[in-house]
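$ ./design --mode recover --in tokens.txt
reading tokens...
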């Protein structure tokens, strides 16, 4: 989705870093984004290419350890990283590999992207949210704002990126997990109070953990979370539900796993996320083949 926008702005801007096997596979067929074919330039670690100004990482968290080393030849002194991974831990992992001073905090929210095979369709691309660890509007933040404006990629630079990251984490812990377990699209949460009650129960555990860490997630944030979910395309599905339907591994460790671990460290009880963890682990174990 984002690569297609940047490619439309200037096709020389976008280079997709992959391993040799993916390069061979991807070069065989254009990717369709809203039915438009895109042939990106694929780089592997052995490709000759200048270092990147900006690296946008959009793999799943469990794929990060394999993906990060591929980037090494393209990381220079001024390379900046934006991680679109859900959850609250990928910035630390990228920082450990390439230096935390290179990493901005980031996430994408409110999109209704749907993946079918390697093709993507969407009606609402939501927006990307990013910022410096100290929330400064630094020269690199200004440069990325200018790039996204030119490419018509909606974005926000919030006053407190850490509070915003925890808000997004709370959205994912609630809606991704409940929707994936019950196999329901966004519209069901608008229709049934019982579905909203499940979201709120899962979110309250995130809120309690966040508050113990000094992150300002209030009751108002839970209301805003419900409003965010109700504003999404009723037929749209969370990325976790799409993973379950395609029998791909889910981001369970990134969501319930993280809430349980943080809850244990801070002595916050997390029974709803323990239930979701075990139930979704069983869903994955039940995949055929
Ligand atoms: N989908 C959504 O609505 C949202 C997703 N996110 C986050 O964005 C990230 C991406 O999500 P999503 O697009 O749904 O995930 P997908 O699983 O659809 O896409 C992940 C992509 O990463 C590729 N990949 C995996 N390993 C490597 C590697 N070693 N080198 C290069 N490419 C690799 C995969 O390739 P292949 O298919 O060939 O294995 C796949 O194309 C996730 O972290 C998710 O949490 C955030 C907000 C919303
Ligand atoms: C729920 C949603 C679309 C929120 O932006 C999301 O982050 C996901 O599906 O992973």
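writing sequence...
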């Amino acid at each position: 989705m984002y690569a297609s926008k940047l490619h439309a702005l200037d096709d020389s801007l976008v280079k997709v870093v992959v391993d040799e096997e993916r390069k061979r596979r991807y070069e065989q067929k254009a990717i369709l984004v809203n039915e438009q074919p895109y042939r990106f330039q694929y780089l592997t670690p052995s490709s000759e290419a200048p270092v990147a100004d900006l690296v946008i990482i959009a793999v799943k968290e469990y794929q990060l350890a394999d993906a990060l080393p591929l980037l090494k030849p393209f990381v220079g002194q001024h390379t900046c990283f934006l991680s679109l991974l859900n959850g609250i831990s990928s910035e630390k992992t990228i920082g450990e590999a390439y230096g935390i001073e290179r990493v901005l905090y980031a996430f994408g929210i409110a999109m209704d992207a749907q993946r079918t095979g390697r093709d993507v369709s969407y009606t609402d691309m939501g927006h990307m949210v990013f910022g410096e660890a100290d929330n400064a509007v630094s020269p690199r933040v200004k440069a990325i704002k200018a790039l996204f404006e030119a490419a018509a990629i909606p974005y926000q630079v919030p006053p407190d990126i850490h509070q915003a990251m925890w808000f997004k984490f709370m959205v994912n812990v609630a809606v991704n997990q409940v929707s994936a377990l019950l196999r329901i699209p966004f519209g069901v949460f608008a229709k049934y109070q019982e579905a909203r009650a499940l979201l709120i129960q899962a979110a309250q555990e995130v809120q309690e953990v966040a508050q113990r860490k000094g992150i300002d997630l209030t009751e108002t944030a839970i209301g805003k979370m419900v409003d965010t979910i109700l504003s999404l395309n009723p037929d749209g599905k969370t990325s976790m539900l799409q993973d379950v339907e395609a029998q791909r591994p889910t981001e369970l460790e990134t969501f319930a796993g993280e809430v349980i671990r943080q809850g244990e460290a801070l002595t916050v009880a997390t029974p709803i996320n323990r239930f979701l963890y075990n139930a979704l682990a069983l869903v994955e174990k039940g995949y055929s083949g």
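exit 0
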